[in-house]
Amino acid sequence: MKETNSMSKFTEEMKVEVTRIMDRYPEGKQKSALIPVLLMAQDASEGWLSPEVMDETAALLGLEPIEVYEVATFYSMFNLQPVGRHVFEVCQTGPCMLNGSDALIAHIQHRLGIGVGETTPDGLFTLKTVECLGACGYAPMMQLGKHYREHLTPEKVDALIEACRNMTMA
Amino acid sequence: MGRKLLLEKADIPGIRSYNVYRQHGGYAAVEKALRMTPEEVVEEVKKSGLRGRGGAGFPTGMKWSFLAKPAGVPRYLVCNADESEPGTFKDRYLMEFLPHLLIEGLIAASWALGSHRTYIYIRGEYAWIVDILDQAIAEANAHGWLGKNILGSGFDCQIYVQRGAGAYICGEETALIESLEGKRGNPRIKPPFPAVKGLWDCPTVVNNVETLAAVVPILQLGGEEYAKTGIGKSTGTKLISACGNINRPGVYEIDMTISVEEFIYSDEYCGGIAGGKRLKACIPGGSSVPILPANLLLRTAKGEKRMMTYESLSDGGFQTGSMMGSGGFIVLDEDQCVVRHTLTLARFYRHESCGQCSPCREGTGWMEKILHRMEHGKGRMEDIDLLWDIQRRIEGNTICPLGDAAAWPVAAAIRHFRDEFAWHVTAPEECLRRNYGLAQYADELVSA
Question: Where are the alpha helices (DSSP H) in chain A?
């Protein structure tokens, strides 16, 4: 992996938060903080975990780097490659498929001019397909940042793309 | 109108806040529990007949009574909020709209089990719900329902929310425990069971969100009264998350006395099949349970009306029945292709296999590949038997139930829709063009 985001991503404020997270667990069980801390680190690192960020997490929690890598590579929410500023994570599992997610994904590919797993050249958008996010009654849907966008239609997706573009320019 | 024990207050404006929740009788179950001994609380839950609402349906009171209590060793209660079974979105609803109901149930259950640190392990994608739960926990702390010496009882308890980071397998209780310990979600070999050796090797109970919320009405009503709702061993109410091709998808609380037909066609629930189409098939309990064609869904093989109960949904075993599972109710209309739908599920399980056991790690990939080629017009007639053979070799041969969960949907699809698979081989062009399956399976006689 050539790319890095090696500047320390843990601000003093975040380090206080890390300590607060570690306090949730009994003495000696602070490894439990790893996943919450990695999620926080990813949010502070343009949405992905570089080896440097993972190493810093390991140092902060007193873990071996390998303990962090093995966790980061297991869970689907951790991005180990750079991603765009807005990540469209579109569900494609059964219930969403029954409600037209395949056509929706094709529409997004067409609109953004990228394939699944790719990022637009301007670095604004990444398109990912994901497996069931627990919004089956509100299908088709996607996760965009912290929130779900549900009952999607091509029109709604177009509006979302537009809103993301405007947000970036502002 | 069925009896509502969980979502009764869901429509009260502001019920998410502590003050409104308390005004409407909230936290009375904690007051009641703390006046009882922990053993008495466990006894009430046993009497209620409550069965685990996550999918397995194991009696909750019995699970609680298995908890080992060695002196000087902490015990833990962990709430499983990893809800990831396709078709299931009921726990999300409960946490989002009635967070204090869960917190109330958790405090009472923590008292019963002697857990001083209780964790809610929530799937990482439900990021905004973490804020809602944290807020509810902060309010409960501020009003003395959590912390040291709760209501002067001498009982200390704190609840923490722990986010996962995307892994279906972490809904399996030992994988969840591994994840909560900061590791990959690889399920553990049982025994030892978590009741003896769970979180940080301490005795642990892992219960689903809905199960723990149900402790509140059980304590309010008393176990015996709670058990009066429902039929036979299906006591109380069950949250069903209905989705697919229906008019009114959403989360419904049913009191386990209604029929499947009523659930699908009544305007109180699913409101019938969308677009005036016919019902073709349904997966009644989350993606892992067997799919049933319309005729077997509405009536058992014996010709009896199928009910929305644990027993009735599984009537006929896997040959002609299915399971209540998690209550993820997925409905397919006449134009849906079972092969295509099964492919999405096979892809799901391949993606979610943790990779520990070779039958599951390899088998889920093979099933996806074969289904992919069938769906894309490149299937061979012998693929059907090959799929059958693979799923049979996964089932029962893995550490955790994910292997079974991956095998069952494929097995049931072939069992009930074999000629639709065959049709994909004999008429690939037509399949590709129409992009859906055979409508002949939709029962013409099906109507409300």
Answer: 12-22, 34-43, 51-61, 65-72, 94-98, 101-112, 154-169
